[in-house]
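Structure ticket #2291
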Amino acid sequence: MAPSDQHPARLESAMPLKKESNPIRNKKNQSNFSLQALSTGAVASFVAAITLSQLPIPVQAKGRRATAPAAAAASGGSAPVMNPANMSPLDHNNKAVEYGQKGMWAQAISEHEIALNGDPENTQFKTNLSGALLRYGQALAAKSNWNQAIHEFREALYIDPNNADAANNLDHCIQAQHRDPSQHLKMGDELEIEGNYPEAIVEYRRNVRADDGGPAAAALARALIKQGSNTPSRLVEGYSMMVVAVGKSWDPSQQNDLAACHQRLGDILKEYAFVAKNDNRMEPALKRLSNASVEYRRAVQLNPGNTDAIRSLVEVAREAVAIKPSFDNHLMLGSAYLLLGDLDRAKQEYEACNKLDPNSESLNLARKAFHWAIASSTLHVDLLPNTVIKAEEQLKKNPNDPVWLYIWGMAKQQQGEREMAMKAYLKALSLNPTLPKLKERINAMNGGPPVGSSPATPGKPGDKVPSTVPGANGAPTPPAVPTVDPTRVAKLAEIQAKMRANDLEGALKDANDIAMADTSCGEAWFDIATIQQKKGNLDEASSSFRQAKLLKFPGAAEAGRQLDIMRVQPQIEEADKQMAANNFVSAAGTLREAIGLAPTLSILHKKLADCLDKLGDAKEAGRERKKAAELEKGD
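Resolution: structure written out below.
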């Protein structure tokens, strides 16, 4: 398959955004307030927190005094009469503060929501709203109204995830119901099943702080994406979190779940590719379709039985060809049809590629995949003769191509020429012992288990194998089996040459070809990361460096660490300034934002621990120091 030119871009640069401004006043997020349309950009961070002793703060208008509303009626009485048409967001904020001072928290919250809806970027308005929700929750908890209090505390955390007092009060209420407040994942799952995505997001966020693994981040991302159907800014946040999730560690038993994450990323990119197409913005549409195809292929690679991802891959490839019938797009569609098992249409697309660039190495790889599919399956017997001819044509050009030898052998075995097949298998084995199921096929032909079962080691005493291999002039089978694929070594060397010649697009395409064919090739992932860094795609480069690090490629860990430091340097400098000014609440928020970009950078967790100590949250500070120590140990 031919991968796209780069890893999917950050969604902020790939889709129109709207930002959420008000909290959720019921479990299904049926807000009464309109969303404010904003220009494309990252979702603003919620960095302010409020303590138990703090009340919402009246905000002074720049250049004039804040309007002082008339005295509010006592609780249960009528609200002050003011003309809403003449009230600014600042007026609503100050009116809310007056309500709060009288303990009229429901009215205060409503006014704070209107204020924030009118000025979504106002950090103080967010702080005030979260604080009002906190105080309302405390009033409800004082009456042992645990369920409603829990709802208000979670809303406070939904608006401001760093509101430590809301978190502490939430834990107290859950304990009062004789439940374990540390079971964030379980509570998040229950809330998500109910369709209460905002509160599920709160619990999943808290779970991510305790569990840095991929599945925890994916659960949060999933809830954010679902909430995005009501609040588009959450979709952006969810997309970003899902990108983080797929870059984290996953247990081998969770590969299907990881595949589902890649599929979800592909679905989002596909949706917004269609948005761009409908707006007649064809270049962004093509880029998103290409990036979606990368995610769908990764999903299929992790879970070959994921037919939904395969069909979606076909869909985005068709759209790409319809917009621009280029070589790359025809190749993408041909590979998608091949995965779907539609060989006739795959052949048509490869023929279109041949007219555009008959000498392309990518097309040669696609041809191999096409004929491999024919030779390795018993469903295409009518196509076998042509595959034999094509394989022989290629072997005349290069008798030592292990893949074409293997394809030729499989075709010959299906045609009943077992001895010829065995000769081809043995020569292919001597050239590349890592070819899929090759050793199993050799063993099965010698009376061992059939292909697909646990194979025995070929070449043991008693095995009946021919003593010669094709092209060896009757010489004995080579006793030594190389441990390195010479074709791949040559390809990797070619990538380095292209990088030196500044042919970054060609080098990236070749490196992606190798990585897609063999995800365990750490050097290919390292090259991809290096090229992405040179192209300025730092988020994608960081993800690829992490993949190379997981594969234990030398130098990947340090290169990734240096890149991450570069990516979050602005946040580190900003946090240092905030800490110097004793503004530890804002510094903690800035550092959490940086951790979202570079979760494996130990220095960020250390700095956050220092901030949390200053804020009196020793327990959370201890967790961050423990995390920093684990990361340093891993490096």
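Closing remark: Confidence is low (pLDDT under 50) at residues 1-83, 453-484.
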